[in-house]
């Protein structure tokens, strides 16, 4: 029997760090990732259980509060504007117009958590992290993470208990509505607050900045696999960015491949497209709801980046079906830029986002078998899954199924050695994508859950009728009010 690995083998971790540390000067993302993983494992190994618990209970929550306060004060960007460098807490207090005593306490914890450097008594120096947080694309992550995602994440455990610990599967009445006490879903809420829509787009762009993307050379062979087979017709469409927001990804694609033949089309809802300004003239914008028929027929590729993880399996199947009927067999490709969580050794970035997706969208990040089940269920076959580094999104390359799929996963190495290995067994594609355990009724802005499955382990949930249109409707669990939506 093979002995189980010891995650607390401190001497082995130190040797691994030393070995990778010697190679860091040579560069290379994989070496850095391996060294980082070993260093993080070493921290977990050296930390006592009580230190781990206190860090979770106290330090991380306090760090969030300090960062949100910093963001509201525009501390880091004002620090940068003032010339960066070492500054006393009193100087930073003057820059932000805050109470010196208050800011000194905030700065102390930011330094203790490594966000800034402490160079002396009440003296601090910026770090690469604080410099990054002075940029708008990263600063906008705060309202997205804490104002929009924060309430449902904090209340997720209550919602799961309320529903008998069933996987959330409905976007109309899920953890998001429970956390915010609203009938609105995420997209409805931000549509009522245009500034939040911009913040969400900036947050997504910031998350992907300074990281290898599928468009970078050495990740996905754009010229060979995509551009090489595009039709020579003048009106040929090379790439349709479906649900592409304000066009950040398509603008990046055009910047890296400006000479490729074929149109580039950005699609999103009308209110989002209105905000897609400053794009290259070669990029066409088009208002489109991906839950309706795809109007662009026979494009070389239809691309979705961080779209499907916002939706349940059933909704993903609907979105993909609308694309399927617009595609040309043996020509059109489907490119999905999403996380593919491995069966073992998953990176914390993908697992954390999975919990966020559960809380905010009643959806999920997916494993390879999940992607195969959805795609094959609506008539696609996966050609390859391209992965560059741990903790980053993969690119799923798919096409319309014309034969039994040959499953292949492709992981890039430092030397860009393409390794392919059969993985998995083809599923029939006739399986039920989602087992529905409840019926959701939403009318006149009111939401209720009606348990329709007598075999379900989830306790019955009842909805009281409102006294008037303006009265809230209360969801009851075993006679206790748990969710109020109006």
TrEMBL record:
Biased composition (Low complexity): 454-463
Cross-referenced Pfam families: Methyltransf_2
Keywords: Methyltransferase, S-adenosyl-L-methionine, Transferase
Domain O-methyltransferase C-terminal: from-to ranges: 238-381
GO biological process: methylation
Keyword set includes Aminoacyl-tRNA synthetase: no
Keyword Transmembrane: no
Listed name of the protein: O-methyltransferase C-terminal domain-containing protein
Lineage of producing organism: Eukaryota, Fungi, Dikarya, Ascomycota, Pezizomycotina
